[in-house]
Amino acid sequence: MEKEDFKKYSAELIGTFALVLIGCGSAVIAGEYIGFLGIAFAFGLTLLVMVFAIGNISGCHINPAVTIAMLFAGKIKSRDALLYIIVQCIGAIIAAGLLIIIANGQPEYSLLENGLGQNGYGTQSTAGYSIVACFIAEVVLTLLFILVIFGSLSKKAPTGFAGIAIGFSLVFIHLVGIPITGTSVNPARSLGPAIFVGGIAISQLWLFWVAPIVGAIIAAIIWKYVFEEK
């Protein structure tokens, strides 16, 4: 593996680790203090700073849905896309594992009762939304998120502001999505907590892979054939 490739994959692992640790950590550790608004900003601002920190190294996908969208849009090679997704998932799992160690430092914490910031639908939805509602929400929210990314990185977009637009779009998406599914729009973010929570979180994980990927592919097609400058 060449040095530049190692740097890219390491950046994606660290970036995804940070997003899951801080985002899910804000829900598990600080949720009762900061509420949905604070959790939304934790996810969005973490992504914002990561765009500026590692965007020049790997593009700061830190999300398999983003990587798949870039693959469909012809902006990343298939080998890189596969390895990006693998290291993103590893980073998310490491973050979730570390988060549970930290959370267990609080005597009143219970994985069964407090969870790990996992996503869910139906009885596991934050506000009890149906599987259909949750699937549609994840598809549409991911689609909008990916379109913001493509637009912010396009040649005619203001230079140097992509991270701000992308980060704040994730804030807005969480403000709507947290009551519905806990907000995924990122399969790796859903995988990490589900691995440790197990049970129904694992059985429902498919939705938080399928729906974001569907949304990402639709967004890539829309961008490539409707908006992209040829």
Description:
This protein is mainly α and 230 residues long. The chain is built from 10 helices and no strands. The chain has helices at residues 3-28, 31-58, 64-72, 78-103, 111-114, 131-153, 162-181, 187-197, 200-203, 207-227. α1 crosses α8 (187-197), α2 crosses α7 and α6 packs across α10.
**General form:** globular
How far apart the termini lie comes to: 33 Å
Helix content: over 70%
Query: What radius of gyration results from the CA coordinates?
Result: 17 Å
Largest sheet descriptor: none
Residue windows where pLDDT falls under 50 for at least 5 positions:
none
Fraction of residues in β-strands: under 5%
Helix and strand content put the structural class at mainly alpha
Q: What is the count of helical runs?
A: 10
Q: Determine the mean pLDDT.
A: 96
Topology summary:
Layout: H1 3-28, H2 31-58, H3 64-72, H4 78-103, H5 111-114, H6 131-153, H7 162-181, H8 187-197, H9 200-203, H10 207-227
Helix pairs in contact: 1-2, 1-4, 1-8, 2-7, 3-4, 3-10, 4-8, 6-7, 6-10, 8-10
Structural key phrases:
230 residues; mainly alpha; 10 helices; 0% strand
Short structural description:
The chain has 230 residues and is an all-alpha fold. It is built from ten helices and no strands.
